[in-house]
Design brief:
The chain is of the alpha+beta class and 111 residues long. It has helices at residues 27-39, 42-48, 53-67, 83-108; strands spanning 15-17, 23-26, 72-75, 78-81. Helices cover 55% and strands 14% of the residues. It has a two-stranded antiparallel ribbon with strand order 1-2. Strand 3 (72-75) and strand 4 form a beta hairpin. Helix 2 (42-48) crosses helix 3.
């Protein structure tokens, strides 16, 4: 196989930091919110993600504190995402998609 037959893919990670450089939101927190939304509880999300409940709760709380908006609210015996959390996830997905598309355009002809 010659070099032109190889397929190369540009990979990157995108996250949002606060002014002190601490993570406010990224793929890990996105996955936590996605699991909470699908399963209806932080406890179930923690189990599915092989994380402790405390770790899931702390990451959500840190993001809420750094962003200044609620992401998850308790409802009955479970948890639900706020409309802001849903919007954040939608925009984060769009951002990741756009980054990947631009990277593919930039390096597609070169590699």
């Amino acid at each position: 196989m010659n070099e032109r037959e190889n397929v190369y893919v540009v990979r990157s990670k995108v996250w949002i930091e606060d002014s002190s450089g601490k993570v406010a939101f990224g793929l890990g927190r996105f996955r936590i919110l996605e699991a909470v939304d699908r399963l209806g509880s932080m406890n179930s999300a923690a189990r599915e993600l092989s994380m402790s409940y405390r770790s899931v709760w702390c990451r959500i709380r840190e993001s809420e504190d750094r962003i200044g908006r609620k992401l998850v609210v308790r409802e009955g015996k479970g948890s639900v995402l706020t409309s802001f959390a849903r919007s954040l996830m939608k925009q984060f997905t769009a951002l990741n998609t756009r980054f990947q598309e631009e990277a593919d355009k930039m390096f597609g002809d070169l590699l």
